[in-house]
Specification:
proton-transporting ATP synthase activity, rotational mechanism, mainly alpha
Length: 215
């Protein structure tokens, strides 16, 4: 495709150069013809005509036309065979380089889009994995918290039960000690004041009755 474009441009430029050369040749002939028409008037001028420009002398016109045609022919040959093909090669190389650059840019764009898609997919996977891990961690933390709270509640209940049992036992022991001591004191008082010996069982029963009434 670039080669065809370069050849088309070369043919177009060759045509333009040929037309330009033909136009210049025609213009040169017209100028020379006009000069030939004015040449007789210049010749009547005597010494002034002999001292005019050589290129306006009709005797020199055939030689000038020959060299003009030869010069334009050589220029046309050089332009069509040397200069314009070289320009076409440069344009073709430039077009090929541009085409390669565009193809490389398209390839790099496709690779970048593929990498971007992979990165987005990896980010989506990492995001989903992070959310799953967060959910599992939250569930584990909640489960551990509930387990620890249940264990703490059970431990506190057990300790409270043990403390209540210990308090009740201490209370019963204290009441028993008070009952015995109170019975001994009551027997001693009855013996000293009334001279009556009271049975220990009766004294304890009486003290127990009083204690029950005070509760």
């Amino acid at each position: 495709m670039p080669n065809l474009l370069a050849k088309g441009r070369l043919a177009r430029w060759s045509g333009v150069a040929g037309v330009s050369l033909v136009t210049l040749t025609t213009m040169a002939g017209t100028v020379l013809a006009a000069a030939a028409e004015h040449a007789p008037n210049a010749a009547h001028g005597g010494e002034h005509a002999s001292g005019g420009l050589p290129q306006l002398n009709p005797a020199n016109f055939p030689t000038q036309i020959f060299w003009l045609a030869l010069t334009f022919g050589v220029l046309y040959y050089l332009m069509s065979k040397k200069a314009l093909p070289r320009v076409a090669e440069v344009l073709e190389a430039r077009q090929e380089r541009i085409s390669r650059d565009l193809a490389k840019a398209a390839q790099l764009k496709e690779e970048a889009e593929a990498v971007l898609a992979q990165v987005e997919q990896s980010l989506a996977g990492a995001r989903a994995e992070a959310l799953t891990l967060i959910g599992q961690t939250s569930a584990e933390i909640e489960s551990n918290t509930q387990s620890r709270q249940a264990a703490l509640t059970a431990d506190l209940a057990a300790r409270l039960t043990a403390a209540e049992a210990s308090i009740a036992s201490a209370k019963d022991q204290a009441i028993a000690n008070i009952r015995t001591t109170s019975a001994d004191i009551a027997r001693d008082i009855a013996s000293r004041l009334a001279g009556v010996e009271v049975d220990a069982a009766q004294a304890e029963a009486a003290v127990a009755a009083v204690i029950e009434e005070r509760r």
